[in-house]
Each structure stands twice: as C-alpha cells, then as structure tokens.
Amino acid sequence: MTKSKNKGHRSRVPQKNRSSNPVVPMEDIEDKEPEVRAKHPKVTDRQHELVATLLHDGRTVASACEQIDADRTWASKTLNKQHVIDYANDLAKCVLGVHSIRALAKMGNLLNSKSDHVALEAARDLMDRAGLGNDGSAGAPPLTINISL
Questions:
Q1: Hey, what CATH class is 15-96 in?
Q2: Beta partners for 10?
C-alpha cells in the first residue's frame, strides 16, 4: 500500500492488484485522491478502493469485487449512493483531465501525418470537438417517416 500525499489517506489498492496495462495509471489516481477526497468527506477508504479499481482497470463490477475481495451486492449498493457517484465522477474528471490534454496534443500532431487519411481524420475530429464539424445537417433536408397502422 502506498501513502497519499496529505490527510493521511492510504491507497487501499494493493500493489499486486495493479494492472500492467491500466486504463488510468494508479499513480495518477493516488496523486489526485487527496484533492478529490477533501471534497467528499463521506467517502470511506473501502468505497475509494472500489472506485479506484474500476477507474484503474476499466473492470466490470464483478471483476473489481474479486480484485479487492468485496461482496458484489455491497459494491452495487455502494455505486448507487449519490456521494459515491459524485466522488467517482470528480475523481475521473480530475484524473482524465490531465490525459485529455495529452490526447489533444496527440491529435494536433496527427494533423502533420504523412498519411493524408490520418491527417484528414484528425482534422475532422478536432473540428467536431471545436463545434465546427459536419453535424449532418448540411445537404439533404431531414428525413421524416410516418407509419400509420
């Protein structure tokens, strides 16, 4: 177990349960945990462990329960609690926000790709994200189908 940077919180996700190919590196989750936990005082260490495992590996709830040795019924009830939902959303936004900057930079680099197809797809994606892409409304009028029985 590793100790978080402040407030004495300890990450309860054991080193052996960390994925070698994570969706989100556990180090990133641990770095942001104290900041997010400060906004969510009702979240217990066990609830954090469940949320962190799901975010880290992108596992199913059943698989996460096996990983952290938790009851699936408890996990399902826990994940339906509003304070846990809010915590999970805030933690994901905080952690993934850093990665979204890197992803955007990568898309920008793809604009200079030697492959015209790759550069075109990167341009389309960036234009769509900026709200300047094709929303499907250009060209033909909308299609309306009425079925009467």
A1: mainly alpha
A2: 3
**How far from chain centre, in Å, is Cα 103?**
13
**Mean predicted lDDT score pLDDT of the chain:** 80
pLDDT of the residue at 4: 39
Higher pLDDT, 45 or 98: 45
Check: CB of residue 58 under 8 Å from CB of residue 94: no
**Percent with pLDDT over 70 in the chain:** 77
The structure's pTM equals 0.60
Mean pLDDT of 49-65: 90
* 100 Cα distance to chain centroid: 10
CA distance 11 to 28: 12
Q: Give, as one character, the DSSP assignment of residue 141.
A: P
CA dist 14 and 19 (Å) reads 11
Residues 10 and 4 sit within 8 Å (Cβ to Cβ): yes
Q: Which of 101, 79, 94, 78 is nearest to 33 (CA)?
A: 94
Compute the distance between CA of residue 91 and CA of residue 45 in angstroms, rounded to an integer: 14
